[in-house]
Structure formats: structure tokens, C-alpha cells
């Protein structure tokens, strides 16, 4: 089997995901995607006619974010028309999956040069969602308004799922707030030391003016005292009907887990930030890289996907990580850095506890609580962050995973070379 190598990773800074407030919020989603695709080409000088496919992740596929952004953004970035493009959706896990698919094509021998990545502009997606509600079009939820599916697998609000998991695991709000403050502290240190500089590009407008060249979301002055003052963010949904005349969001979870007493604890300080962002990864076979003078930075060691309880929705990362480790023939002790998406603090806290990990190795440069979570763009960002950290510290293996809506999780292991 042919090895698949990561040649380079690039990403945008994450902009605040609120229309009119975030620096990226006025961009067309295809422009944001094109920015990282163009940067990947310009930094590495590959012939885009050789790209077998651009596999792109988008989660909120509506309006300007609908259609095949993978293809359209590649064309907008000036790629040769012979470079294909396809767009997929595994919700939050989309760009880990797009990278796994790209690596699999190379490993199979069917492709030599691939680009993976993804994006979401939550400023735009949330604006579209508001317009739909104003027009009387209610949210269909993760199950697309399918009552038969909802009867089989009740799917609730993700924040309430996070609160339910905390209750089931005996994890307190105070413990999660410690994780939230640490995420902010680590992110601030990473930014101050330039740890993100290698992978981050400046986003420019059509005239070449810089729109955003730094992380826009972090709150480095966050303290335990300030977090203690915040109100739970999802309490309003507990007794809200999930559909007209239907069960409340809390009742959907208690339908499957009747003994769980759910208490609202997650708030904005221990949940992922709402942001805009995009990321891209260049992958190549060994033969192609050698022939064209591309220097690999990492090898794709193993990829895994798993499903878990869709009602709790967020518990997939642990089994996905175990599955990837088994495929790689590695143990947790072989992993030098872990990137586990901070969708909610409880996801990472449970992951650390279940695998009995050294906390210093998990999200050493902060995570989505401090930096934000551009949904389908996050996975490739985390892969790049893990690779940069391995190069900085001289580590060998990195494992990247994240929960995804519907009770899923992809995972990928990379080796620095």
C-alpha cells in the first residue's frame, strides 16, 4: 500500500461569527475557501493540473454555502480546470473525514496529489437560520425533520446533550470551568509565542487589503471568577418543545435515559466559540513528492470513523481514538500530542478521564473554547495544529479527533517525519 504524506497545512485566522461584527463575516464563503486553497498552492508551487481532487467539508450547506464549494472555490482560487472538487458533510468532523478520504485515495494508488479541508461561516449560517425562522420555516434539527427517525433515535439540542453527559459522568461545572480557563491560558501563550504562525495566513480582499491576520475570538483575561458569573447557555431549551406539540429537548434525552437528572451547566465560557474560518491540507504520494520536489512533513498513519449514541451525540471521540490506535498498532502512551475538539468542555474532560491521559498533552495550545469552532473547517485546523506542535517539540505521533452531530466521531493519527 502506498503511503500518504502531508506536505503542508494552511488555515485562516478565526473571525467572530457574527454578521457585521466579525472581520470575515462579509466575505463570500467560496472566497474564504479560495483563500486557503490559493495559499496552499502559492506556498508549495505545485501544478494544480496535477491535483486529482479537492475534497472539501461544509456543514451548514445552505444559501451561499450550498452547492459544491470544493469545486467552485478551487476554480475561484485559480486552480486548473482539470483539478476536480467535491463537497461532503460529516457535520463537525467534515475536514478530518475529507483528509481521511484524500489519504485513502493516495494509499489505494488511485491518486497522487490531493487537497483536503473545509470551512463554515457561522456568521452567514446563523443569519440564514434567522431569516428562515422569520419566514416561518422552523429548524428541522439534525434529523432533517424526519419523525420516524426521531422516534427511533431522539436527537436533542447539543448543549443539553453536553449537560446530560456531565450529569451521567459526575462532572461538575467548576471542573469544566477549570478546563475553560486553561484553554484560554494555553491559547494566549501559543499566540504570544507565535505557535500558530506557520499555518496561519492573512485573509485579504480583492484589492489586497488585509481583512484579518490574527485570531479574533480569544478572551485571555478569562478567570474562574468571571466564568462563575455566567448563566447556563442552554437552560432556555430544556423545557422548549423540540417541535410544535412535541417533547421538550430535555424529554428527548430522558426518553432514552430516564434516570438522568440533567442540570444546565454549560455556558459560553465552556463551550466552543461561534466563528468563521477555513483550512486546507496538501497530501501527496511518496513518488509524486520526490519527483516534484515536495518535502513531506508528516505521514498519515491511521484513520478511523465510528458511530455512537445519537441521543447523547457527543461521546464518539473515545471509541474513535481507540479504534485508530488499534489500526495503527499503537497505544495511548505512543501519542505525543492530542487534539480533541473543545465543542463543549465535557467532551474533552470525559476524553481525558476515560483514556487516563496526561492533561499537558491534550490541546497544549488551547482549543475551540478559546479560539472558536468553524464546524467543518475545524478538523483540518486541528491536524495542522497537531503537526505544528510535533515539529515544535520534536514529538512523533499526534492523534486528532472530534465529536460530530448524529453521534459520530472521526479520528486520524499522523507521524512527524
From TrEMBL:
Gene3D superfamilies named in the record: 3.40.47.10
Residues annotated as the enzyme's active site: 92 (acyl-thioester intermediate), 373 (proton acceptor), 403 (proton acceptor)
UniProt KW keywords: Acyltransferase, Transferase
InterPro entries documented for this protein: Thiolase, Thiolase-like, Thiolase_AS, Thiolase_C, Thiolase_CS, Thiolase_N
Start and end residues of each Thiolase C-terminal domain: 294-416
Pfam families: Thiolase_C, Thiolase_N
Occurrences of domain Thiolase N-terminal (ranges): 5-235
GO molecular function, a single term: acetyl-CoA C-acyltransferase activity
Source domain of life: Bacteria
NCBIfam families: AcCoA-C-Actrans, PRK06025.1
Family from the record: Belongs to the thiolase-like superfamily. Thiolase family.
Protein's name according to its UniProt entry: Acetyl-CoA acetyltransferase
Native species: Novosphingobium endophyticum
